[in-house]
Each structure stands twice: as structure tokens, then as C-alpha cells.
Design goal:
Helix content is 38%, strand content 16%. With 311 residues, the chain is an alpha/beta fold.
Length: 311
Amino acid sequence: MSHSDLQTAVVAGASGYIGQHLVRTLVDRGVDVRTIGRSATSDATWDDPASLTAVLDGADLLVNFAGRSVSCRYTKRNADAIFASRTETTAALGRALATTARPPQLWVNSSTGTIYRDARDRPMDEVTSELGTGFSVAVARAWEHERFSAPTPVRKVALRMSIVLGAGGGALNPFINLARMGFGGPMGDGDQKFSWVHVDDVVAAITYAFEHPDVIGPVNVAAPDVVTNAEMMGHVREALGRRRGVPLPAWALEAGARVIRTEPELVLKSRWIDSRVLRESGFDFAYPSLTLALDEIAGRTPRGLLPVALG
């Protein structure tokens, strides 16, 4: 099966960073893209079940990136929104697919590599891994449960993404800002693993999964070049031409979480993710090394402090 066989795709959460990137790439390839969202410009909306069924009918691929950003402080209000925005949209898609006459061949639903435990001893793959505990893991487990328990005949993939890097957004902007403000040193003890993936490879993994029926279930998406936080910040400084960076101990990150507008967990947890399913299936990353990815991103990143999504 080739790209030409992918003629119609439905993208939910198309307004987010990865969703926008996916839509642009698919449209450039001549794919007819239909969107699901909350705005009137979407082809279907979450509060209209009939529109969901209609937009899915006859499509080849469904990709769901809907969900409130986790890059925020975990107040009860934000936590409830993070949880509900993922589980409820996924459940709505499951119900719609069950009543679709001609459902897509593949349903790719966003998930997260944060589902695994804090790992410093060995990489976590889809087969031998251990799941973690805490709020982020509970969200990820409930999110995946809604997808895999949905009574549909559709092949399902849970895209367990690592930290997604790319120009113009993604997760890198806070790190770039810290480096440009002089705080580009290690965070915490700096030994925590930093699994990452270039946004182009996220899109490539989705189209690859469509073309390869053997790719099913949880699928990790992390480049093979896993580094420590200290190494990652060193690469960021190098890409930006910064020789030095002040380290940020854990207490400073706790106190300064408002500066990076996120939970310290997002940078202090050790994420060591192995893309075993993709690797054994023969997938090649366009950006296998962090240096390669950061050079591409730095070349398209404007000077000065960058916008960071408010949580």
C-alpha cells in the first residue's frame, strides 16, 4: 500500500501544533482532509454525533489529536479538562465508528510515552515496559482504555509519543527561552533521560502505520538517540550558539514553574522510550539524532523569546 492509497483522512484536534503539521503534510500529498473540532469551520463537531458519523463514512484514516495541552499547572480545573478532553472525545469517536457504514481502515489516537514509569535503568518498549503512577499516567491509561475498548472493527493504534520537537511550536520553545535567558544548564540532576521525536517523524509514523497493517496497538514514537537532560540542554545551547547555561536544580524548577508555564514533572521525569514496534517493522526516522533535529529547528527559529502556550 502506498501514499496514493490514502485518499481521505479525518483529523480531530487539527488546530493543535501536531494536528496542523499533519494536515499540511497530507494536503500537500493530495489527500482530502476532513476535520473534527469545536469551531464552525470544522467539517464535524463534537456535540453533533450525526456529523461525526457522516465525516467518518468512506474515509481511509482517522487521526485523533484532540485534548487540552498538558503544558500547564495541574490545578483541579486544568486536570479535569485534561482528563475529560481526551477520554470524552475518544469515546465519542468510538461510538461514531460503531455506527459508520464504511469506517476507516485505521484509527490512530494520540497517547503519550509518559504512561511509562520514571526509567533510568532501561528503555521502555511496548512489550516489556512497566507503566507508571500518578495523574499523567492515569490520564494516559484512561485515554487508551476508551480507544481499545471501543466496539469497532477498525485497526487501532495508540501513538505513545515522546516529547515532540519542531520549529514554530512544539515542546522546544520553553527550553529555547531558558537557554536564551542564560538558564540553559541541566535541570534537576540532569541525568533523567529525554526521549524526543521530530514532528516530521510523528507524521511519517502515522502514514507508515497506515501502509503497514502489522502495526497495531500501542506504538512508541521516539527517536533512537535518547539523551540525558544535561546532554539535551547542551545540544540546545550549541544549536543556539550559547556557550554556557546556569543549571536549574529541582527546587528552582518548582519555584520557577510559572516561567516555563508547566509542571516540573514534564522536565524532571526520566523518559526512556524505545520505539520497538516501529523499529522491528522497518520504520526509518528522518531525524534519528538530536543534533540533526535541533540544527533543522534552529535554522527556522526567529531570534528573541518565543511564544509559549499559556496553561
